[in-house]
Amino acid sequence: MHPILTLVAQRLALGFLLLFAASILIFVGTAILPGDVAQSILGQSATPEALANLRAELGVDQPAITRYFSWLGGVLQGDLGTALTNGRDIAESLSSRLGNTLFLAFWAALIAVPLAITLGLLAVRYKDRWPDKLISAITLTTISIPEFMIGYLLIFFLSIQLPLLIGGMEFLPDGLRSWLLSNLRFSSVALMNDSMTLIEKIKSITLPIMVLTLVVLAHMMRMTRAAILNVMQSAYIETAELKGLGMLKIIRKHAFPNAIAPIVNVVMLNLAYLVVGVVVVEVVFAYPGMGQYLVDHVSKRDVPVVQACGLIFAAVYIGLNLIADIVSILANPRLRHPK
Amino acid sequence: MRIPLAALIGLFFTGLFFAMAIFAPLIAPYGMAEVVGDVWEPPSDQFLLGTDSIGRDLLSRIIYGGQTTIFIATAATALSFIIGSVLGFFAAVSGGWVDQSISRFVDLIMSIPTLIFALVVLSVMPTTITILIVLMGLLDSTRVYRLARAVAVDITVMDYVEAARLRGEKIGWIIFRETLPNALSPLVAEIGLRFIFAVLFVSTLSFLGLGVQPPQADWGGIVKENKEGINYGISAALYPAYAIAVLCISINLVADWVLNRTTSLKGGRG
């Protein structure tokens, strides 16, 4: 078999093994921790009958291994169990929310990825000059503020202060002012329902997209810059320069094939990061996605929902990291043309 | 030794924040949970930053909140460094199956996003400050472990470690007397970055209502308490954001300087 196929197959197997192990870890994290789960769900004032009922419902009276495998068996068949708090089927409540979360992440990625790569390239092109320094300063600021605070800063300045500012600009003609006011409106709540058109949906999530973009942009730019600098400083690029190749040809024949793997890697790692950033941003903008659902049910101590959401987030995260690995194997010229 | 301006500014603000945290009861004009005025009063001579959603002095809340946030972040960082570096050195010095099993377990924990893992655990644990510190310290120790192990693997192949092994030193000696002093500089720079991560993380948990519980003040919680005000143009919820940004940027500047200094010491390209 081609060595690349072997490597990819190994990675895939490793990914599934990791996911399996992660499911054990999530289960262990919620099921075998010290303390009575039923007690902590119902609180100190619960009656013994209520506790016994809940224990039977959770299956806590059975050994942990039995519970784990019946849970895993259910998950593999698409049955995520029922929520303790409202008795609804978890898979059903999750499906539309997962869709919403992926919708938000998709648009954020669509804007952040090309922007980050372009800015990363700019930083390399103007290394140690003002564009590079400006980009690093902005990066430093955005990684020093938590996601949710970026969210509230944007809400405060864009959806509250900006309309006031525009309204106060007496010198603008009235027509222009009202046009600006109606078009530069950033909603601080990201509503989402099926009757909305695509444009309405995107308008409604403008601010969440901006927050997520800012959050991943910084990391992605920094890593892209480092990856490209690493390639550009290697000996074969210097050789190519010395033998008199033009800049374009160096980039096309030597730099690009070697830089593609690290860049794809950077993008995938940051998409994985984005999936987690979504959790907080959804809470800020009351967006009906997976993250808000998870956080809600953590505070209600609804263990089955938390397990299901945790597993899905872990699966997406592991999956994206797996793709990053596989792409860098496929894109590596040394692995593609073995001696 | 000349300290660059950026690092000086960083050192100044870092010192200022830590001093504010330590002497919070002396500096704060009012008590932490003392209701002293109306709801969301604008900044005035009496209340320098105004009042919060139930009429407590916002400046006092932020000073006390800084105390909580900085204390939790410091404790969690210390814990993660103790666990992570000891395990990392132990794995590197031992090698073989010990190294393999610890490293694979750390890989496994890192395969689940930190926030998600913390949420899963917090769904069954009471949210006390001790549990927050232990949880954050344990989760963050995986990153320290990786760095410590990587640094220590380079050191353990040195001749002086080999010499110590040959003269029959125990593993404790090799870790603390041979490896640790030589691995200190990269770890010191990492402390800053881990501390920033801890500040952001505990603020996020508190904002989600799963961290520090009211009436105890902390920076994430202040945002949560005052977020409704934003819709009326009241900026009370934004001050903690500025505080966190200034603290984290300052520490970043210091960490950058430490890192550059240590690489130039080693004769690296800096």
* Mean pLDDT metric of chain A: 80
Tell me the series of helices and strands of chain B, N- to C-terminal. Answer: HHHHHHHHHH
The Cα radius of gyration of chain A reads 25 Å
Helix/strand/pairing category of chain B: mainly alpha
> How many distinct helices of chain B?
10
| Overall pLDDT metric of chain B | 84
Spans of chain B of at least 5 consecutive residues whose pLDDT stays below 50 are: 264-270
Query: SSE order of chain A in H/E notation?
Result: HHHHHHHHHHHHHHH
Largest interface: A-B, 52 and 42 residues
Total count of strands of chain B:
0
Task: Give the terminus-to-terminus CA distance of chain B.
Answer: 16 Å
Instruction: Enumerate the spans of chain A where pLDDT stays under 50 for 5 or more consecutive residues.
Output: none
Beta percentage of chain A is: under 5%
Query: Sheet with the most strands of chain B?
Result: none
Q: Tally the beta strands of chain A.
A: 0
Write a brief caption for the model.
By secondary structure, chain A is mostly helical. Chain A has helices at residues 3-31, 37-42, 48-58, 64-76, 90-125, 130-142, 147-167, 174-183, 198-204, 206-232, 235-242, 247-284, 290-299, 303-331, 333-336.
